[in-house]
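To illustrate this point, what follows is a protein record of this kind.

___
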Amino acid sequence: MANSKSSGSLGWASVWALAAGGMVGGGIYTALGVVVSVAGQWTWLSFLISGLIAASSAYCYVSLANKFGESGGAFTYLREINKNGTAGSLSWLLLLGYVLTMAVYAFAFGHYLSFSFNGGPWVTRILALGIMATLIGLNLAGVKKTKKVEIAIVSLNLLALIGLAVFGFMQWDSLKLISGLEPRPVWSAPIGAASIFMAYEGFQLLTYEYKEIRKPKKILKPTIMLALLFVILIYIAVAIGAVMLAGALSIISQKQVSLSVAAQNALGTPGLIIMTVAAVFATAAAINSTLFSSANLSKRVAEDKELPGLFRKTRNDVPYAAVILLGILSAVLAIIGKLSSLVEAASLIFLITFSTVNIIALRYLDDSKKWISYVGIVLAAIIIIILLIRLATVAPIQLGILAFLSLFIIIGRPAMVSSFSSKNKSKPDE
């Protein structure tokens, strides 16, 4: 097990910044318009409900990380309790979730940058493809951002969002929350929460870097929980402030670039420039972090014979096959996908993953803390049911594809894993 006095390079400030940046890095830029269209004036409550599920899950994640003292997240936790088959299936599903997430971030990158100079649909697609190609190339070359650069990007991002929220509250007008819309009932809030859960998924990327954290058993839990509380407050403030600046109807009609619309309304061209720079850096950084972490997860899964041996081979200490494949799939989805469907499909996958971690944690949490797990399990179950009903209603084809892939993973994976294992035994590693 990992020593609580690990000499890793990440101190509390870095862990806090990376956890907050992992969540805010792309989620709010893409999620706001989606949830406003569903929840209307109850958008803030949608972010709060999703935040409660994320808080329960984060507590369980870091409790299990400290218990087992290993990197690897949900895959490792299931392995530790001898649920190897479930671990393999969940790892494949989780990788699909990361692909969808990177597609959303690339989608946002292309739209925000293109909007700043009135680029057309093809320009947007080219920009989305370009950022994915660039980051695939940088990862293959072994180029890594320093922690100082990552923290600087997070700081810029948070300052831009806080500024936007402040300007919005300075122009408070409750009528703008429903301007041009039919008022939504309060029960629309959990429907909105189901639509945007992926906005909170980034915190668990820190569990993949457990061994890089200095004194993880001491600092990881309080630091991530404080970061999550901060992010919940930021999301609620931005959800209200942006609507005050642009109006609910504008946020919905231009949901791909809703925060740029709000910033432009607040400060004109300077506001547009500030928010574009923040969005571009935040989404690019989020893609890079997710690509790096998901590729390394693929390598770990392949080492346990749950993926082809090719995925564990490295160049420049980078699992190149995973980087290329995951990056290409994300680029394709970013070009052809629809924002709402991508966000909701990714949200469903992360809800399932986080629910699993909450269930595992029940074995290890003190009796006085088990209620935290139960809160996450119950809320997640409700939101999953709501999201399935919503997808069946508004995006049945996308739900059908996701269901097919899930069944393929659960049913077809064991046979494929046997094939991987046979090939690995007959062919030594290079």
Observations:
- The chain has a mean pLDDT of 86.
- Residues 136 and 327 are 6 Å apart (CA to CA).
